[in-house]
Every structure is written in C-alpha cells, then in structure tokens.
Amino acid sequence: MNETFLPKIPIGHWADLLIQFITDHFEGFFGYIASGIQSFVDSLVWIFALMTPIVFILICVAIAFWRRGIGVALFTLIGLVLIYDLGYWAHAMQTFALVLTSVVLSILIGFPLGILAGINKTFHRIMTPILDFMQTMPSFVYLIPAIFLFGTGMPPGVVATIVFAMPPTIRMTGLGIRQVPSDLIEASDAFGSTTWQKLFKVQIPIAAPTVMAGVNQSIMLSLSMVVVASLVGAPGLGADVYLAVTSLRTDIGVEAGLAIVIIAIMLDRISQNTRNKKTGES
Amino acid sequence: MKKLEVKQATKIFGKSPKRGLELLKKGLSKQAIKEKTDLNVGVAGATFNVESNEIFVIMGLSGSGKSTLVRLLNRLINPTSGTILIDGEDITRMNAEQLRTVRRKKISMVFQGFALFPHRTVLDNTLFGLEIQGVDKEERKERARQALIRVGLKGYEDSFPDQLSGGMQQRVGLARALASDTDILLMDEAFSALDPLIRKEMQDQLLDLQSDMQKTIVFITHDLDEALRIGDRIALMKDGQIVQIGSPEDILMNPANEYVEHFVEDVDLSKVITAGHIMTRAEAMTCDRGARVALQLMNDNGISSIFAVDRNKKLLGVVDADDAAAASKSGTPLREIVQEVKPVQVDTHLSDLFEDISKSTIPLAVVDEQGRLRGLVRRAAIIHALAGNTAFTKAEEVQNV
C-alpha cells in the first residue's frame, strides 16, 4: 500500500480536527442546544404522561378521524391499545417525543430553507449537493460528531435524526414553490403584490400539498432513525429493539418492532397529503 | 386623450441585449439577429398610442411578439429600450414601489389561461387585487361582489375555480381585473382558450361592459375575426414589429403590405363593413313642402322616390313619384302620401342588410340612433363593397404570381 502514486489525503483527519475545533470553541453553544432539545423532549414526555394513555389515544383517534376518516381512526385505536397492552407505552411516548421534536425542528429549519431554494436559483444549486450528502451518508456516521457535540442521550439522537430526516422537507418545499404555475406568479405580480404578499398569498398556499408530502417523508425517515438514535443512548422503542438484537430476544424484538410499525403507519396516514375536501377532488 | 403612449419599445431576450439593439439599429431583421447571435428579438421598436375608452387590439400570429408587447405595458417583462407612458408617466423609469402602485391603481390584466388561484374561492379570487392593496375586508368583499354581478356570476361566490366551466372561469378573471377599478385593462388572448360560441358570447359581454364602464382596453388576439369584431383600432404584428395600425376597415380596405393583405384575404367582409361605410348622400325633403317641389327634386336628381324628413332630419318615410304627381294634381298635402319605410342603422353590418335590400324596391334609408336620416344604401353599393374592392383584387394577383 505504500507503493501508491498518491499520498493519502487526510480527509478523516481534517474532519477530526474540525470537530475538535468546534468542541473546543463552541462547546457552550452546543451545550445550550443540547439542553434545549433535552428539555423540549422532556416536556413532551411529561405532557404525554400527564394526559394518561386514554386521553392520548382518544386525541390521536380524533385527529385520525378528522384527517382521514373512520378507517384510519379505527386502526389508530386498535394499534395504540395494543402498544399499551404489550407494555411499551412509556417507551412509545419517548419515541413519539423524539420523532415529534425532530420533525418540528426539521420543519422549522427546513421550510424556510426550502422556500429560499425555491425562489433563489443559486441557493438551490448550492443546497442540492449538500442535501444529497446528508441523505446518502450512512446515518450512523452522524452519531460520532453528535456525541462529541451533544453528549449522549436524547439530544444527539434528535440531531442525527434531523440531519437525516430534514432533506425531504427542504427538497419538496423548494419543488412546490418552483412548481407554482408561472401565470399565477404573473397574475400576482400584475395586481401589484409585494414579494412577501406573493409568497404568502400565492406561492406557499399552492405549494402546500407538495410541502406536506415532504413533511410526511421527513416523519417516516425520523421513525426509521429511532433505532440508530438508540445507539447514542436515546431512550424509547429504538432502545428496546437494540436491546433485543444484542441479547437475541426475539420476543422483545418483535413486540417493540411492531410498536414502531404501528406508530409509523399511524403518523404516515395522518400526515399524508389529502386534497382539500372543499374542492371535491381526490 | 392619450392614456397609453408607447415609443420605440423594444425587448430583446438573451445575455447581451445591448448588442441586439445595435444590430436592430443597423436594420437587421429578427431572423438575421437570431442567426448571428443567441439573441431573440421579442418586440422591436413598437410605437403606438392608446386613447382613453378605446379598445385597442394587438393582433398577430404566435411568435409575433404580441404577448411580450402586452407584458411590457405593465412591465411584467422589462423593456430593453424605449419608453412607455401611462397617463404621461414613464413606467420604464419607475422603481419597484412606484411600479406596484401603477399596477394596483391603473392597470390590471386578464390572462389567456385564466390564471385563477386554485386555492381561493371565486369571491376570494375576485378580491385579490383589493386585498393586495390593503382595502378594508368588508369593502373589498362588497366591491368583488359588484364585479361578479357585472360579469353575471352572482351566486358563484363560494365556488372554487375548478368547479366552473372555462367561460365562467374567464368571467372570474375579468371580474378580478374589474374589481380593482383600474382605467386600463390588458387582455392577453383572454378568450382564445374558449370554444367559439362561448368566445362570441364573451366578446359581446366585453362590448356591453365597455359601453358601460368606458375602460381603456388593450386586447391581444391571434384571431382576426375577434380583432375586427371588438377592436376600435387594430395593430397588426409580425416578427416583433407592428406592421400596420388602423381601424378594422383601414386594415381591410388599405392593407399596408402583402403580409397584411394575405392575412385579411379570407375575412368575411359582410360581417365587417357596415351600412355607414357604404352609404351615399340621400336626397331628402321636409314634409312642409308641397308635392310639386318633391316632383321637381326627383326630376333634378333622376330618382323615382325621395325620403321625407321632419325639421330635425328625422326620417318620416318615402314619397313615390307617381303619388307625388297625383298629389300635385289633386292638391293633397305631402304628409298624406308619405309611405313608411324600414330604415337600417349606421352600424348595421352588410350581412344583416341582405334580406331588407332584397325585399325593397328602393334604396335602404340609413339612420342614426336618434332616427335621423344619414344616407342611403343602394344594392349596387353592397355588391361593390363585397366584390369590387381594389385591395382584394391586388391580393389575388399577388397569389396568382
């Protein structure tokens, strides 16, 4: 191997140095973020606990019924009761809190970035390779710097989940904005809209179904990250699956896995893009 | 009054439009410039005025630059050079803020594909312009309702655009433009996407609205019949240039060049030319004169009947030579031998004259809206207008060569 015609480029070493540099100089900053994430997740878990399972289930069923109708509502009811029955309720709530936090942050960060990418071509060109990188880099890799910057537990899990789950929201928001028909943009301009009026009255409302499809994907990707997040100590159903794998416990594996699937299907159906009922299109 | 003045407006698409301007100055055509460079000349040196309350039609085939030209008028597309004055103010020099004000207050637009917002109800679409201007909520709703009533869409306020037919959707587009109450209305192929019957209905409605509201309308179309039907004046475009500007009759009777001739050769003249165009001076006499005078006048002019009018030139009827001769012998007053005739209006199209003229033994009397005699139309004049038009003979010659 010493015979190579090219000396090894120390990319790995550079990454190491970069993380070292960031931890040395911005430790406090990342500490704040970590504790912010931690307290957000904690308060969600606290709220869920306060609700008691029955209230939580009823709220979920109501949302499912409002969004999609009787079928999904029934599935939600049976699914959540099953999770409770199997004894995974507390862990399910932790997973729920993790996913919700990641998705909320993904939207908070991703939506504005997506709009910018939709409006500005240069930003779109810069953003595209970054998003490709974020999505194709194996998700485990994010865990390493996440531990350095955010310690162990929920915060690095949330951050790694966001990095992996946010790209669809950015992409689809940008796509939705770019897909607004040009004559609608012209109409908006012709009546004297400002840039903001055009954005909020025309572009965002028309892009909304596409944006929702992106958010739906982000939710699904977040759920797919819960097991990975458990590697850095994020509690919840992911940790159960991890435990099952390491101790070869089929029973726990199947039960916890099933609970994740139930939550995934429920969140997918609820967040799935349904056409505006008023226009009568399906 | 000039509402809109366009001077040498030019739009060149491409990376270095200044170079295109120089080439245009040297007299190169759109095609030549396209071959030489990557530049695409959209509009080249368009100059015209639009008067207040006029329907000015810009017509041309696709690629002639008409859609680009209309977008220069509210700067949806920025002109490369030239000036565009609205009420004497040059919009090409305005900053974004001033331009917005002009778009809100002075000039609104109707689009070919309707461009309605699918997420808004008909009412919310209609009040869009007012909402953008920050008009009070109740007031904008009221004004939008009024606009919808004007276009005949009362009762559809809460529908969504995709629940309406094409014609109705474009009525919403029209109402949206009317709601802002701007003086100038730009209509970019507004009726082209509609099927022929609906299109004609919309044209009629536009003409009705126009006689009511007195807007200044710039109407873009590729349909010559439409242009002739609704245009007070027509500008014909080809390859980004205006080839001819004139009234519909001007364009038909005196085409500026072969292109225009070729363009108009298939037009059904009987639907364009009106009685007013071909009428000739009518001999008439007031009724208080005697039958003898009537006879004398007929003799002098070599005619066998004469129109009788009152002191205000209002048509009373016709006096026949035989009757007049009898009356002058018996001393009957002229008033008693006047026979009623069915007159035609000045703006009646030739196609609507055929039946009347075929039944009538005497020329048709042409009257204005007040019923005053303006002239007469002879059979020969109709046939002449339909056939013996020098411009059209030339067009055929050109084709035969």
TrEMBL record, chain A:
Gene3D superfamilies assigned to the protein according to its UniProt record, in alphabetical order: MetI-like (1.10.3720.10)
Spans through the membrane: 44-65, 72-90, 96-119, 140-166, 219-245, 252-270
Biological process terms in GO annotation: choline transport; glycine betaine transport
Protein name in UniProt: Glycine betaine transport system permease protein OpuAB
Top-level taxon: Bacteria
KW Transmembrane (keyword) present: yes
Species: Sporolactobacillus terrae
Compartmental location: Cell membrane; Membrane
Pfam families documented for this protein: BPD_transp_1
Domain ABC transmembrane type-1 span(s) in chain numbering: 92-271
Record's keyword terms, sorted: Cell membrane, Membrane, Transmembrane, Transmembrane helix, Transport
Topology versus the membrane: Multi-pass membrane protein
One GO CC term on file: ATP-binding cassette (ABC) transporter complex
GO molecular function term, any single one: carnitine transmembrane transporter activity
UniProt cross-references to InterPro entries, sorted A to Z: MetI-like, MetI-like_sf
Family membership: Belongs to the binding-protein-dependent transport system permease family.
SUPFAM superfamilies assigned to the protein according to its UniProt record, in alphabetical order: MetI-like
UniProtKB/TrEMBL annotation, chain B:
Gene Ontology biological process terms in this record: amino acid transport; glycine betaine transport; response to osmotic stress
Record-linked SUPFAM superfamilies: CBS-domain pair, P-loop containing nucleoside triphosphate hydrolases
UniProt EC number: 7.6.2.9
PROSITE patterns: ABC_TRANSPORTER_1, ABC_TRANSPORTER_2
Limits of the ABC transporter domain: 28-264
Sequence similarity: Belongs to the ABC transporter superfamily.
Protein known as: Quaternary amine transport ATP-binding protein
Organism ancestry: Bacteria, Bacillati, Bacillota, Bacilli, Bacillales
